[in-house]
């Protein structure tokens, strides 16, 4: 098993397809001779560096939320769980990369069975992180949506008990789904389910953000008409638009290529152009790891209360 690979749904599926139909695969590769398919090589050190930074950043977020009682609310519970999901990605990446480096240098010698068992554990962690990350991103979006459109009823709708129930349900579903993904990785239906889940969450979040932005824009226009201060409120509206653009843009940039990769595996696994696209897989992995690094900046570090607590942690004033 190649330790630089990140998701078993891609690697194992491609491997099984190639082994089961070697002649067809060779014919497809022969057609790629006229194509320039340069594989992107990314140093293990880069994977390790980003993974360690992401791990440290997300641990700080979790500790800050635990420490500050003012952050003990459903919104920050979801952010904390999102950070835990990102920690799973970071830990998986760091452990996998370190093992790859040690094996390459001849420092560590392990049997195939040990490598396979460890790889299955890492794969389950990553699959669980993928599902839980998407789910908690949706939960955060829904929480913001309720805050804006049902402000007076927010505390009765999003109670602590309901937030905890949502969190437990997401982690249970993530664990079960990751087990199914690893067990039935050869089945295209599993990949299709993951792609469908991604598209559903993307459409759901985009719809809610669009609705929130529309309300914010109308609210800004009313304030402008009342106070006759067009310039100031136009700036406020633009700031909200930029924030929403960053949230959705980073999500698409980091996860879009990976799920496009999965889509091509199902639709055109032997097509020469698709095979060339598969050569960029390491780039998609870096983007996913970068998402774990960027998430706390967007969803957490923008909070003044959280920034204050993080500064206290960094200054060792626990």
Report on this model:
With 318 residues, this protein is mainly α. It has a single domain, classed as Up-down Bundle (Rhopdopsin 7-helix transmembrane proteins), CATH 1.20.1070.10. It is built from twelve helices and no strands. The longest helix is centred in the middle third of the chain and has 40 residues, at 188-227.
Fourth CATH level, the homologous superfamily? Rhodopsin 7-helix transmembrane proteins
CATH topology: Rhopdopsin 7-helix transmembrane proteins
Query: Architecture, CATH level 2?
Result: Up-down Bundle
- Topology as a string of helices (H) and strands (E): HHHHHHHHHHHH
| Count of beta strands | 0
Number of domains: 1
Extract low-pLDDT stretches: 1-33, 229-238
Instruction: Choose one word for the global shape.
Output: globular
Tally of contiguous helical segments:
12
Strand content: under 5%
Please identify the top-level CATH class: Mainly Alpha
Radius of gyration from CA coordinates: 22 Å
The biggest beta sheet reads: none
What does the average pLDDT come to?
Answer: 77
Portion of residues within helices:
over 70%
N→C terminal distance: 43 Å
Family: Belongs to the G-protein coupled receptor 1 family.
Protein name: Melanocyte-stimulating hormone receptor
Transmembrane segments: 46-66, 75-101, 121-142, 163-183, 189-220, 241-260, 280-301
Membrane topology: Multi-pass membrane protein
């Amino acid at each position: 098993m190649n330790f630089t690979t990140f998701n078993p749904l891609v690697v194992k599926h491609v491997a099984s397809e190639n082994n089961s139909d070697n002649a067809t695969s060779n014919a497809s590769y022969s057609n790629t001779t006229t194509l320039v398919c340069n594989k992107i090589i990314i140093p293990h050190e880069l994977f390790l560096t980003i993974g360690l930074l992401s791990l440290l950043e997300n641990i700080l977020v979790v500790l800050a939320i635990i420490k500050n009682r003012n952050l003990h609310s459903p919104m920050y519970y979801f952010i904390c769980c999102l950070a835990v999901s990102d920690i799973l990605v970071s830990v998986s990446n760091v452990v996998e990369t370190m093992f790859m480096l040690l094996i390459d240098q001849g420092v560590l010698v392990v049997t195939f069975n040990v490598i396979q068992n460890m790889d299955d554990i890492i794969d389950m962690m990553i699959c669980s992180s993928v599902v839980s990350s998407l789910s908690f991103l949706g939960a955060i979006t829904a929480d913001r949506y309720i805050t804006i459109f049902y402000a007076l009823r927010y505390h009765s709708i999003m109670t602590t008990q309901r937030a905890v129930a949502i969190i437990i349900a997401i982690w249970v579903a993530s664990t079960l789904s990751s087990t199914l993904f690893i067990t039935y990785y050869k089945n295209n239906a599993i990949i299709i389910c993951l792609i469908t889940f991604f598209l559903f969450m993307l459409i759901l979040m985009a719809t809610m953000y669009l609705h929130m932005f529309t309300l914010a824009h109308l609210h800004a226009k009313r304030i402008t008409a009342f106070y006759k201060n067009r310039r100031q409120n136009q700036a406020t509206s633009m700031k909200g638009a930029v924030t929403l653009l960053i949230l959705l843009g980073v999500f698409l940039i980091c996860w879009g290529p990976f799920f496009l990769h999965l889509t091509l595996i199902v639709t055109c696994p032997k097509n020469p152009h698709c095979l060339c696209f598969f050569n960029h897989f390491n780039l998609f992995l870096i983007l996913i790891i970068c998402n774990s690094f960027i998430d706390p900046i967007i969803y957490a570090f923008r909070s003044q209360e959280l920034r204050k607590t993080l500064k206290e942690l960094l200054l060792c004033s626990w």
